[in-house]
């Protein structure tokens, strides 16, 4: 037998996806993201989400991803800074069984292999004792494909995947609602750009697009999490300090793993924490690689995180936002430049004094920076400038005290009382995601809702006349990151803006191009650059649900057109087909197979006359397309129940093969124009197109696989050979480039992987 007590080194990264050397080789235990937010559908509920298992390929069979056995997955809640350790802990353990070990399929004949169930235990005494609140909880299967999920004979016979996910939501004996299972990974970031030495770019590529992960989602009454058992209705204000919680998640394994010759595995020894996450991107982009494994192994209690404080008070990222350091070497961050002479004197670049020169000054009395308050933490020395803004965001939360109020009403003095907009202060000196549960949720359909969270709340509080006072009032997005974290929040952009000094600016420590004086406008070009900056990907690649657990169903493994034989009946899913095609006239008749016979189907196709959505099944392929022997041979047809986008299916029809040599009129079109795509298929978002032999002006039209035109270029006076760069859409798939002259037309298919 072999005994394994250590894991080898490797690394690839996202929010906290494979962010440290050891955990990168233990994906089932890898905690990728943590969210904590006020439910947008119930003011008395908080939603806690911990995601695990990064970069799940939806078609990653035959052994699809699931929660690991012999792992403790935990969500930790702190609600009282005066107590030691957790105040509430939710612990999840999973059991995996094979219902039909005689097959290599994951799902067959109504049975599922690698089927996971879970037990959830809760502790409310600091982890000394645990009580089971859910046993035999259901974990939905992987979203393999239509035969595995919906087929009543060979599969599970579900109405659809969402029905399985909804059925898996469980109410605990203690009142929480819980969902555990595979989902679309809701995090979004341009991984390729970010980790190519800060190569941030406009319209970057979401490195998590169409990947899944596994989630543990809990909807908890506020009264369960509040330290005195109070409901939101009992809060004194929307920033009541007694409603602040700190949230973090972890996973732990036993110390010894033993591999036996017969294929069995044994586990023994004490439990060791192998992954943890509170604030997003901490271990990702703040903690250096040499300390990442140590960070993952420690809890945020007992002063453990103080050894890492220097990475927040002088963050590496700040070096790339400082032209006296390495700012010019990272042009992707050129819009972000840290204040070096704010209000003429305050320098917040790494190693500079920041506000330390004010330490002991009577002007600090009554503020959070006084020695009687938190000055020893926020102004520790003359070389830790970001202890005043970044450190509290991550380690203590931010109090509703000067200077941490908006500059509105301060009269140019950042130390004066201003507009309240945050209080999530829980001074444990450890990394947690802190949330004030008294703050109302911003409705997701509010015109002022923004993925920039508190940054956008600050913008509104500084610029909108509705909030031009020092009163405490709700500003949209006060419930956003870093006051908790909503699924929509663009934490990458927000944290980069924060390192760039946007929080300092919000409280009145403006950028260097601001000149104080009567009537001076602090909205300077530097501030506009910072607020206009984004990290390249600003939203997820799919929608969110409107109710708990809010995360979206996982991407399906099977993509494309299923084969449906001649014995298809109405129990089969809706599919599109072609019933007839006339090679001479181009007349084509669309049809349907399966689906609900009581519902009417409408069709759309690219390359046909009147190709827009209609219930008319008789159409005609455009003459130019039929007669151009060099054009693409495939016709894309879409079908759906009338007005029901969720039922959309497609079908690719080869209209040339059935006609053999009857491609009438082809001889008439022997013009020499040729269109060639260099590097097709491509993994990038751009291709080079070569057009040669055009007899007149050329129009280039780019359409996606749905027939929607997404780009157009003109070659007014073409030479013998013309090269053009064409930008594709953001999503992988098929695109169609059509080159048209007054006498010629050619269509070429482009595949973006």
UniProtKB/TrEMBL annotation:
Annotated Pfam families: DUF4331
Superkingdom assignment: Bacteria
Entry protein name: DUF4331 family protein
Organism name: Spirosoma aureum
């Amino acid at each position: 037998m072999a005994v394994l007590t250590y894991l080898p080194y490797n690394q690839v990264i996202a929010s906290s996806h494979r962010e440290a050397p050891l955990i990168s080789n233990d994906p089932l235990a890898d905690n990728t993201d943590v969210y904590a937010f006020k439910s947008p559908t119930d003011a008395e509920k908080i939603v806690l989400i911990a995601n695990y298992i990064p970069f799940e390929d939806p078609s990653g069979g035959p052994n699809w991803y699931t929660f690991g056995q012999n792992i403790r997955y935990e969500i930790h809640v702190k609600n009282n800074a005066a107590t030691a350790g957790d105040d509430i802990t939710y612990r999840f353990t999973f059991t995996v069984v094979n219902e039909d070990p005689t097959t290599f399929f994951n799902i067959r004949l109504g049975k599922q292999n690698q089927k996971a169930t879970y037990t959830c235990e809760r502790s409310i005494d600091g982890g000394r004792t645990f009580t089971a609140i859910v046993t035999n909880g259901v974990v939905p299967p992987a979203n393999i494909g239509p035969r595995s999920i919906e087929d009543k004979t060979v599969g599970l016979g579900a109405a659809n995947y969402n029905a399985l996910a909804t059925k898996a939501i469980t109410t605990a004996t203690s009142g929480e609602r819980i969902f555990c299972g595979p989902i679309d990974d809701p995090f979004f970031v341009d991984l390729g750009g970010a980790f190519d030495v800060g190569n941030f770019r406009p319209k970057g590529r979401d490195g998590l697009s169409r990947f899944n992960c596994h989630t543990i989602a809990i909807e908890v009454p506020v009264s369960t999490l509040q330290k005195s058992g109070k409901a939101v209705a009992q809060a004194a204000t929307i920033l009541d300090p007694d409603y602040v919680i700190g949230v973090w998640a972890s996973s732990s394994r036993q110390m010894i793993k033993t591999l036996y010759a017969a294929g069995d595995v044994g586990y023994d020894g004490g439990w060791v924490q192998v992954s943890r996450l509170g604030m997003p991107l901490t271990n990702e982009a703040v903690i250096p690689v040499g300390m990442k494994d140590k960070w993952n192994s420690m809890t945020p209690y007992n002063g453990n995180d103080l050894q890492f404080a220097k990475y927040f008070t002088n963050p590496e990222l700040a070096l790339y936002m400082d032209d006296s350091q390495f700012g010019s070497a990272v042009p992707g961050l050129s819009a972000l430049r840290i204040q070096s002479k704010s209000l003429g004197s305050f320098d917040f670049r790494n190693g500079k004094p920041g506000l330390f020169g004010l330490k002991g000054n009577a002007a600090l009395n009554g503020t959070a920076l006084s020695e009687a308050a938190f000055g020893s933490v926020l102004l520790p020395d003359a070389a830790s400038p970001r202890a005043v803004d970044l450190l509290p965001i991550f380690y203590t939360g931010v109090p509703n005290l000067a200077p941490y109020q908006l500059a509105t009403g301060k009269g140019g003095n950042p130390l004066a009382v201003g507009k309240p907009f945050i209080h999530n202060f829980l001074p444990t000196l450890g990394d947690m995601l802190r949330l004030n549960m008294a703050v109302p949720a911003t409705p997701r359909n509010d015109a002022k809702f923004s993925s920039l969270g508190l940054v956008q709340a600050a913008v509104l509080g500084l610029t909108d006349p509705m909030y031009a006072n020092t009163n405490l009032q709700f500003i949209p997005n006060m419930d956003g990151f870093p006051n908790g974290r909503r699924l929509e929040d663009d934490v990458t952009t927000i944290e980069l803006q924060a390192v760039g000094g946007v929080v300092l600016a919000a409280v009145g420590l403006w950028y260097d191009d601001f000149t104080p004086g009567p009537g001076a406008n602090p909205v300077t070009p530097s501030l506009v650059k910072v607020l206009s900056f984004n990290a390249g990907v600003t939203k997820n690649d799919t929608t969110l649900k409107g109710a708990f657990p809010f995360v979206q169903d996982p991407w399906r493994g099977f993509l494309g057109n299923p084969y449906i034989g001649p014995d298809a009946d109405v129990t089969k899913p809706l599919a599109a087909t072609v019933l007839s095609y006339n090679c001479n006239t181009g007349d084509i008749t669309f049809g349907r197979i399966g689906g609900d016979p009581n519902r009417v189907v409408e069709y759309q196709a690219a390359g046909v006359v009147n190709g827009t959505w209609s219930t008319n099944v008789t159409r005609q392929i455009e003459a130019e397309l039929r007669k151009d022997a060099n054009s693409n041979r495939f016709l894309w047809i879409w079908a759906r129940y009338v007005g029901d986008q969720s039922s959309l299916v497609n079908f690719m029809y080869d209209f040339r093969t059935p006609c053999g040599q009857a491609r009438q009129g082809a001889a008439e079109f022997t013009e020499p124009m040729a269109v060639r795509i260099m590097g097709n298929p491509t993994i990038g978002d751009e291709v080079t197109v070569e057009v040669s032999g055009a007899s007149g002006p050329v129009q280039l039209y780019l359409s996606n696989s749905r027939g929607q035109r997404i780009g157009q270029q003109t070659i007014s006076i073409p030479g013998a050979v013309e090269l053009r760069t064409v930008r594709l859409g953001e999503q992988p798939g098929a695109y169609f480039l059509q080159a048209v002259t007054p006498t010629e037309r050619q269509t070429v298919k482009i595949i973006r992987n």
